[in-house]
Amino acid sequence: LSILHMVQVERSHALESDVRTTAAEVRQAIYQALAVEFRDDLPRWRAELIEKTLTLRFREPEVLFDRSSSRIKPEFEAILHDFLPRYVSRLAPFQEVIREIRIEGHTSSEWSPDSSLLDAYFANMELSQQRTQAVLRFAYGLDSLRQADWFRGRIAAVGLSSSRLVRDDSGRENPDASRRVEFSVLTNFEARLLEPIKLGQAQTSSVGQR
Q1: Which of 4 and 160 is assigned the larger pLDDT?
Q2: Is 5's pLDDT higher than 70?
Q3: What's the per-residue H, E or C state across 78-138?
Q4: Measured over all CA atoms, what is the biggest interatomic distance in the chain, rounded to whole angstroms?
Q5: Distance CA 151, CA 122 (A)
Q6: pTM (2 d.p.)
Q7: What is the sign, positive or negative, of the torsion defined by CA atoms of 24, 156, 78, 147?
Q8: Tens digits of per-residue pLDDT, 20-42?
Q9: Count of helices and strands (H, E) across the chain
Q10: Helix-, strand-, coil-residue percentages of the chain, each rounded to 5
């Protein structure tokens, strides 16, 4: 049993190492594909691409929505009309390893002056959900995406209210920077790392090596 346990541990470590190496290579390839595609657009869109999380962040609230509104502004509609088909096209070669493409809506912690922190949080939660749903509905309405079944099967809209505020160096909330829309790519490699190595597999491997 001790030998079998050692074999299992060694195989688990080897699998984890292989998965991590593959994940790093694929994530880098996804990042490079997006970086090359949008490098000239990000400054004019007032957006940024974050390599660590494969997140494309639209960070200019005055472009996105009116205050306390879920109606997409015309300027953001124009951006989305340009961005979404190209985004989906660049991700298509990686569709087998993409678990989810997540539209995230983020707000500041502010609401009406007489609102409690909890009331403001839930009001912003509803608002952020409505905004991401508006972006998702816009994406579904694009003719160029109607045939991208893989994308429609992986896209999700998530409103996160003020749970992930942007803060300055002193730790104070930056309300404008906190109001943002993000598109993030999640791969299936994380799930593979959680898959158990069965003892039977280790036994088979051990017997085969004798």
Answers
A1: 160
A2: no
A3: HHHHHHHHHHHHHHHHHCCCEEEEEEEEECCCCCCCCCCHHHHHHHHHHHHHHHHHHHHHH
A4: 74
A5: 30
A6: 0.81
A7: positive
A8: 678 888 999 999 999 999 999 99
A9: 9, 5
A10: 55, 15, 30
